[in-house]
Amino acid sequence: xxxxxxxxxxxxxxxxxxxxxxxxxxxxxxxxxxxxxxxxxxxxxxxxxxx
Length: 51
What we know:
- By secondary structure, the protein is mainly alpha-helical.
- 67% of the residues lie in helices and 0% in strands.
- It has helices at 2-16, 30-48.
- The N and C termini lie close together (10 Å).
- 0% of the residues are buried.
């Protein structure tokens, strides 16, 4: 249950970090890349049964 909630929150954070607004275009892809990496680690841990 907790892992499902964590996964949903991380996906929402990933979508929110996409540089779509004028003030965030200069950020590049660093925020979404970092959150994407965290999401990938959580997915791997979920598949391995560690969470």
